[in-house]
């Protein structure tokens, strides 16, 4: 069986052979990816192709809708009633464009909708005008994409590899389309195996949702993980929403071919066009785009923010980064009987925003509701499109008793192996053994070298406003009508008091000795929350002694003298 790397390279070569010089690199993906989907659909339908055409021709004048007969007699979930597929199109090179359109329009509605979202028509016309449509079709018929030859798992890897290559050529964000599988496996391990009792047993039905599903990798890997490690008989329904029309179409076609319900995948912006409004899910996993502006959705989000029952009522992050909006979206979809969320973030949602800001208010809401269970710091250089430090959060409204009121932080930044060859920015990966080590650390739920367990309030603080009096020319405090001192705004200062401390005791201990005339403006106190990973896992490295540094400098000086003497002698 051919590897996904070999198959990706084979398909990639079509770009060099057929598209180069005629299309811009930015257009390659819009042509190659739909043809990959069409070829795979053809390979699956090939044993039934003639029967489908014959049934359609037999009953089309007798029955308005022939589809039930075709589906029943062929046992397929989709069909094509034209006499063409990609292989048969080669039989008439003169009319290839007309026949191609006839072929596409012969597909059943669920497939036709997928193909229409690829927006192929103008690109195909350009291919035909330059006498390359037939050549492209010919190249693809040489590639066998039948599931017996290329599994759904492999096909997903092929799509991802092609997307990565196209993204590199166009400087687009490949991470917007899919997440490296080692990260997905670690995330689903924590989300699902962390609640394995709920997934065991006979006759259970559970749902998994991804609001940024891309090509569907998180959903498919999540299901594979559960079937392999927990319960092969679990009835698991997968749901997803995707903004990008190409990756949406790929995901939906994979669902169709893999026996999933393609109607469970919806197209649209999850924030401003929630296609699953009112739905609740037991499990949710996602990797929303990092640091992406939501200015285009600002009006919609602010309108919903005014609704006490809306997703964003508690607050919104700054418009330059909408990551936390996706977490709020998922929290809104938690089932009251218990749900678990796994979401990938960069560092910003941990600490951006002071007390009273939207980000801090969202963290406060999550932590004070005791929903945040665990955060794992991942190694750098783990993603295809960025080398930045990333984290995933586990959020649930049904913590185990020993975890209630507590948050576990895990430092997984050193749990990686180097790759033989970089893939974009990705130069490291997390092995199966390292994934098990990290999950064991999670399960032990103890303080250690890589784990910290803190009470929820540990991450909170009260920001207090410190005032000092205005003074007249004699240095005497100026008072208001009620006799209280008038604050000098130029001397105003702030202190962060941990929630675990008494504010007055803190003030008397830390502030009053240095500012004896100061006081707390109690009306302006604000509670905030932040999580500072670097601080909690900081390992002090003692400075070298002066003697050691002096010895090294003297050694370097001697070496430089010797080198100079050698030069002079020469």
SSE diagram, text form:
Layout: H1 4-19, H2 25-45, H3 49-59, H4 67-74, H5 86-89, H6 96-105, H7 109-116, H8 121-129, H9 133-140, H10 152-170, H11 181-192, H12 196-199, E1 205-210, H13 217-229, E2 235-242, H14 245-257, E3 265-267, E4 283-286, H15 298-305, H16 323-332, E5 340-346, H17 348-351, H18 358-368, E6 372-377, E7 390-396, E8 406-411, E9 417-423, E10 426-429, H19 432-444, E11 451-455, E12 460-467, E13 493-498, H20 503-511, E14 519-529, H21 533-536, H22 546-569
Parallel strand pairs: 1-2, 1-4, 2-3, 4-5, 6-8
Antiparallel strand pairs: 5-7, 6-7, 8-11, 9-10, 12-13, 12-14
Helix pairs in contact: 1-9, 1-10, 2-10, 2-14, 3-4, 7-14, 11-13, 11-19
Search tags:
single chain; 570 residues; alpha/beta; Rossmann fold; 3 domains; three-stranded antiparallel sheet; 14 strands; globular
Total discrete domains: 3
Helix content: 40-55%
- Class per helix and strand makeup: alpha/beta
Q: Uncertain segments of ≥5 residues (pLDDT<50)?
A: none
Q: From the alpha-carbon coordinates, what is the Rg to the nearest angstrom?
A: 30 Å
Summarize the structure.
42% of the residues lie in helices and 15% in strands. It is built from 22 helices and 14 strands.
Structural write-up:
The protein has three domains: 4-152; 173-379 and 390-400, Rossmann fold (3-Layer(aba) Sandwich), CATH 3.40.50; 459-534, no CATH class. It contains 22 helices and 14 strands. The strands form three sheets. Strands 3-2-1-4-5-7-6-8-11 form a nine-stranded mixed beta sheet, with helices on both faces. The model has no long low-confidence stretch (mean pLDDT 90). It is 42% helix and 15% strand. The chain is globular. Helix 1 packs antiparallel against helix 9 (133-140), helix 2 packs antiparallel against helix 10 (152-170) and helix 2 (25-45) packs parallel to helix 14 (245-257). The chain starts with a helix and ends with a helix. With 570 residues, it is α/β, with parallel strands linked by helices. It has helices spanning 4-19, 25-45, 49-59, 67-74, 86-89, 96-105, 109-116, 121-129, 133-140, 152-170, 181-192, 196-199, 217-229, 245-257, 298-305, 323-332, 348-351, 358-368, 432-444, 503-511, 533-536, 546-569; strands at residues 205-210, 235-242, 265-267, 283-286, 340-346, 372-377, 390-396, 406-411, 417-423, 426-429, 451-455, 460-467, 493-498, 519-529. Strand 2 (235-242), helix 14 and strand 3 form a beta-alpha-beta unit.
């Amino acid at each position: 069986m051919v590897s996904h790397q070999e198959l990706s390279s084979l398909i990639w070569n079509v770009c060099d052979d057929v598209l180069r010089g005629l299309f811009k690199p930015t257009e390659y993906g819009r042509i190659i990816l739909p043809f990959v989907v069409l070829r795979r659909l053809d390979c699956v339908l090939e044993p039934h192709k003639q029967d489908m055409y014959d049934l359609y021709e037999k009953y089309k004048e007798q029955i308005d809708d022939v589809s039930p007969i075709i589906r029943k007699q062929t046992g397929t979930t989709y069909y094509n009633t034209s006499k063409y597929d990609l292989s048969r199109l080669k039989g008439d090179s003169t009319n290839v464009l007309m026949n191609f359109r006839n072929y596409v329009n012969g597909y059943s509605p669920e497939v036709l909708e997928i193909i229409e979202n690829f927006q192929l028509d103008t690109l195909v016309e350009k291919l035909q005008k330059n006498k390359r449509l037939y050549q492209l079709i010919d190249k693809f018929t040489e590639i066998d994409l039948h599931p017996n030859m290329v599994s759904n798992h492999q096909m997903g890897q092929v799509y991802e590899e092609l997307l990565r290559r196209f993204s590199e050529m166009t400087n687009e964000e490949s991470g917007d389309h899919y997440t490296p599988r080692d990260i997905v496996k670690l995330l689903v391990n924590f989300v699902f195996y962390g609640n394995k009792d709920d997934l065991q047993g006979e006759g259970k039905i559970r749902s998994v949702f991804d609001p940024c599903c891309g090509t569907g990798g998180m959903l498919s890997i999540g299901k594979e993980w559960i079937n392999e490690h927990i319960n092969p008989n679990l009835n698991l329904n997968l749901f997803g929403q995707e903004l990008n029309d190409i990756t949406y179409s790929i995901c939906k076609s994979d669902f169709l071919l893999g026996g999933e319900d393609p109607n469970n995948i919806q197209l649209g912006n999850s924030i401003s066009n929630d296609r699953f409004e009112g739905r609740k899910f037991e499990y949710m996993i996602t990797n929303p785009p990092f640091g992406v502006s939501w200015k285009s959705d600002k009006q919609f989000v602010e309108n919903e923010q005014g609704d006490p029952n809306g997703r964003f009522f508690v607050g919104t992050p700054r418009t330059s980064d909408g990551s936390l909006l996706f977490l709020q979206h998922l929290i809104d979809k938690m089932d009251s009987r218990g749900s678990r969320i796994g979401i990938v973030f960069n560092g910003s949602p941990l600490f951006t925003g002071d007390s009273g800001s939207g980000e801090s208010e969202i963290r406060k809401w999550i932590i004070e509701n005791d929903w945040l269970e665990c955060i794992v710091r991942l190694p750098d250089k783990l993603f295809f499109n960025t080398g930045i430090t990333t984290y995933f959060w586990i959020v649930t409204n049904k913590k185990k008793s020993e975890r209630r009121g507590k948050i576990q932080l895990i430092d997984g930044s050193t749990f990686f192996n180097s790759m033989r060859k970089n893939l974009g920015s990705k130069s490291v990966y997390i092995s199966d053994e390292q994934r098990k080590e990290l999950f064991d650390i999670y399960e032990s739920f103890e303080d250690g070298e890589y784990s910290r367990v803190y009470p929820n309030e540990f991450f909170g603080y009260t920001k207090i406003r410190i005032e000092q009096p205005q003074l007249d020319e004699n240095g005497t405090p100026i008072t208001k009508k009620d006799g209280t001192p008038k604050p000098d705004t130029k001397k105003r200062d702030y202190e962060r008091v941990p929630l675990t401390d008494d504010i007055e005791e803190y003030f008397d201990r830390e502030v009053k000795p240095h500012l004896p005339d100061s006081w707390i403006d109690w009306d302006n106190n604000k509670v905030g929350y932040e999580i500072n990973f670097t601080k909690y896992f900081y390992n002090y490295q003692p400075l070298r002694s002066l003697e050691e540094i002096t010895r090294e400098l003297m050694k370097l000086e001697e070496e430089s003298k010797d080198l100079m003497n050698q030069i002079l002698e020469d």
